[in-house]
Amino acid sequence: MKFLYRASITFIKTLMHFVWNMRIIGMNDIHFKSGCIVCANHQSAFDPPFLGSILPFECYFMAKAELFKNKAFGALIAYFNAIPVHRMGFTRGTIQKFVSLLNNKKNIMIFPEGSRKSFSAKPGIAKIAWETDAPIYPVKIENVDDLWACFFRKKQLRFIFREPFYAKEYKALVAESEYKKLATMILDRINGIENEHRNS
């Protein structure tokens, strides 16, 4: 792990603990494997640095290409492994970049909704997961959009780790081309309602 990366996540993690009443649930039970996909719900611009700061490894993640227009800021987030993507989202080129990272045992962080304004999963995460069969670690982030309540100890900034899985566990339920359906299942798994699919 790069020195400044480690120093930064240590600082952010400490800040979350003391200022925003952070609680991490379930992570100690997980044995992370390299070349994995960490996926979470997306509520805030703080999601990537906050989630990245509690993970024991570096992650690559997507960032809007507009953020790179400012060269200084672009260089800063690139140091922290941000990869620019255009508004059309998961293009074939973008997918191939992330597939290549996973094949080289790098770890990636993805938010299935794609943006904070979306409430449905985009199919890109499913295509990446299907092509690589990388382990998927779902995480539910709670109250990152209500940091004042966390500051006053009315709520906790919570990271809830769900049971890891592989996309091909759903092979019997989803055809290879049904990426949208699989992406929705991944998002449901993050939100803890995956059993509805398994039991249906």
Write the layout of secondary structure elements.
Elements: H1 3-19, E1 22-25, E2 37-40, H2 47-54, E3 60-64, H3 71-79, E4 82-85, H4 92-103, E5 108-110, H5 124-132, E6 136-142, H6 147-151, E7 157-161, H7 179-190, H8 195-199
Parallel strand pairs: 1-7, 2-5, 2-6, 3-4, 3-5
Antiparallel strand pairs: 6-7
Helix pairs in contact: 1-2, 4-5, 5-7
What does this structure look like?
The longest helix has 17 residues, at 3-19. The protein is an alpha/beta fold and 200 residues long. Helix 3 (71-79) links the parallel strand 3 (60-64) and strand 4. It is built from 8 helices and 7 strands. The protein is globular and about 45 Å long. It has helices spanning 3-19, 47-54, 71-79, 92-103, 124-132, 147-151, 179-190, 195-199; strands at residues 22-25, 37-40, 60-64, 82-85, 108-110, 136-142, 157-161. It has a 7-stranded mixed sheet with strand order 1-7-6-2-5-3-4, sandwiched between helices. 38% of the residues lie in helices and 16% in strands.
Cα shape? globular
Strand content: 15-25%
Distinct helical segment count: 8
Distance between the first and last residues' Cα: 43 Å
Order of helices and strands, N to C? HEEHEHEHEHEHEHH
Low-confidence stretches: none
The structure class reads alpha/beta
Q: What's the helical proportion of residues? A: 25-40%
Strand order of the largest sheet: 1-7-6-2-5-3-4
What radius of gyration results from the CA coordinates? Answer: 16 Å
- Count of DSSP strands: 7
Largest sheet: 7 strands, mixed
Mean pLDDT: 87
Brief sketch in words of this structure:
The chain is α/β, with parallel strands linked by helices and 200 residues long. It contains eight helices and seven strands. The termini are far apart.
